[in-house]
Amino acid sequence: MKLPVKMTINGQSYSHDVEPRLLLVHYIREAVGLTGTHVGCDTSQCGACTILMDGDAVKACTFFAVQVDGANIMTIEGLAKDGELHPIQMGFWEKHGLQCGFCTPGMIMSAYQMLERYPKPTEAQIRHQLEGNLCRCTGYHNIVKAIEWAAEHMPAKR
Amino acid sequence: MATVAADRLFGKSIKRREDPRFITGRGRYVDDLKLPGMTYAAFVRSPHAHARIRKIDTAAAARHPGVVAVFTGKDMTGVNSLPCGWDLRKAKNIPGVVQDLAIVPHMPLTSDAARHVGDPVAVVIADSQEAAIDAAEKVQVDWEPLPAVTVTERAAQSGAPQLHADAPGNVAFKWEIGDRNATDAAFKGAAVTVKKRIVNQRLVANAMEPRACVARYEDATGDLTLWVTSQNPHVHRLLMCAFVLGIPENNVRVIAPDVGGGFGSKIFLYNEEVICSWASRRLKRPVRWTATRREAYLTDAHGRDHVTDAEIALSRDGKILGLRVKTTANLGAYLSTFAPAVPTFLYGTLLNGVYTIGAIHCEVTGVFSNTTAVDAYRGAGRPEACYAIERIVEAGARGLGMDVAELRKKNFIPKFSGAYQTHVAVSYDSGDYGAAWDRMLQMLDYKKFRAEQEAARKQGRLLGIGFSAYIEACSIAPSKLVGALGAGAGLYESGKVRVHPTGMVTVFTGSHSHGQGHETTFAQLVADKLGIPIEQVDIVHGDTGSVAFGMGTYGSRSASVGGTAILMSLNKVIEKGKKIAAHLLEASPGDIDFSSGEFRVKGAPGKAVPFGAVSLTAYVPHNYPEGLEPGLEETSFYDPSNFCFPFGAHACVVEVERETGNVRILRYLAVDDVGNVINPMIVDGMVHGGIAQGVGQALWEGAVYDGQSGQLMTGSMMDYALPKADMLPMYETDRTVTPTPVNPMGVKGAGETGTIASPPAVVNAVVDALAPLGVDHIEAMPLTAERVWKIIQGAKGAR
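Above: the input entities. Below: the structure tokens describing the complete assembly.
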């Protein structure tokens, strides 16, 4: 049995008939074909599949696609606007906040919400807010620096 | 020793050129690949640690909608065992080494018995992932559960369940190195001897990207392409074609695209990759498999798992007279690709550490158990050696009543360059161990710390410091040497430089980047050497279809071995370019200099041609030297003459919370000497990550098997404690620079230093913190709050 599902991802609308058990992350990767959202675990620990759903950073493995019918989603592919990198993306590049790159999309999407909540986060806040995202390459040092860099370079809120 | 020009990118922290695709979600990992007609594999795995297979009934699974095929080991006729690429029996002419090895079969799908939880026994291939998973649950295996052994010390004891007919007593090998008699004599003459049991627990690499493969067989051409999460695609191809499947390797292309971390776990040839390749040939359709994280825990080669009795002999004034080490190394159920090398030649040969030691003897017994196979994990053998030395040295100092820093300083091998012959076969390339140590103590302000510690102790606070003065062997490795040690392969690297007519350059390297940043560092070398903008340089890696050959990336070998191969080809390109330039400038090739992207006639200012003009001439040879081939492309293979031996000094400051046993890292300092550094930002990043993994081992990580059932208790990220951002500090790093004489760039290797150095520093710090309670040793890691709390409760000075 398949059910219809419709959502907006990075400003584009998609609709598919999917199995009810299909996880949102697999929907995004396999049905929609946006492979920047990664799967690093099967217990919602790693955070590599973090996306923004209706403005909240969520792990896309924690929803079935059919649960989020009508949602407005942004994935890593939707973050840069008109070829301009977002300050968080620039921060990760400037501060060497990535090595293998696999956790990076999830880290960046988590950081996006973090900086909305804490525009000038302390080191401790950054570390705490990254609780749901695992990285095995960087030891987090440069991820913290990257987010600090991004906080300094975010355009002022209008 | 050649040097590199002054206006160079060498040594500059330029931003990584690979990053734009990763930060925009456009990396291309294996699981991102979707091919027309693709099928999906799901494996049926043993739920038992040890069980005979009476019967496998696949009928119901085969009838499941969407299923294309179900295969068991019996279907894979003509397929051989997964090979073990390191045969200790072939080791010869190495003084003091006694070796034997039980090579046991490791079939891609086991048919007789399962020997660890997760051992694959059947594969279901279906049109969708869901159908494959559903059908796999319908495969009925009639198991006869057998007693299992998982505990390292018990595996070779009498009465332990036997895993393999060819390995009596579960002994895979017995191996020794060093001088037993001289060591016995040193211990007899010692003022103080200290013996401790030191356990280096089993770890799981946990690269963030799970293993995956896509195999595509094309019936029309007979070609097979395998995309696979590999650190060494050529090695994968060679082992799979020549040893397991018996198919011509020129019909097989292995591509390791963007790979999300490896840490050793993606070196090896695994069952699933072979099975998907075989199945694609059989079904004539593409087959994809991606490990779930649960499968990764059960099947990715694990690391470490040593139980060691280490013993140090000291003179009254603190000289290290002798070191005796007896280790049991758990190899798991089967011999993984390079398993026998890790607890032997990558371990015993590093036991000389950075110290002048009177005599050393080391015995290692490798044992089979009903656990996942153990092989190289970041550092591979060297962390185990460093841990044993740096723990026993501190235990020795305490036994003698000497300061741990002072005892080390007394015993450092004095500064040297060229060769220092150890007691354990290897000869170090260059070292200045005292310099790195002094720099670390200076950053730390050791005296001040001890005063603070004293004050804190008076308030009842448990503050501690631990050190680690490490050495490691990297740039693996001279082929002749590793051949003599039993390696089935050479460990050179290839590098091809293709100069295009317009002066653009493509470099094909046998090294593979899965986070190391080769697309940047190698391009820095090329841009420097050819005097061209880095934007003109492309680095290609990870594809047997385009790269000549390659041994891949592990053992911190990419810059030193892979980079040197590229450098050799660059030199050849310049030499050929000089001949072309000489012709264009009407001079003799011997009179041509090349620098900053220009070929110039020596002593004739103004007589010059740019690199681009020479490359164009090479491909449009209208006006061209007699007897010279057109084109500008060179290939080199570099085989190092020795390992390189990075070293350094790490320190960790901790505070232990008395009530909970929780360990908090207050400072972590690392002074590393990795020789010359191409890109300091990248090296710092690797040091950070390595430290995090080592701290993870010291404090939280560990693969735990239930001793009765043989189940892996830490089989998910919920159970295996990986370090998170808020568990780790900022790292204070610095470097000393002692270039290696082994290669022309003087680069050693930086990928593993942090993982090697940090566990003993952290554990030593906790022991120091608990010293006021009467604790003088901690046997096992990780030092979780629970374990430390129990140690505190049991300590004689606790109340």
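Note for the figure: The longest strand of chain B covers residues 192-204.
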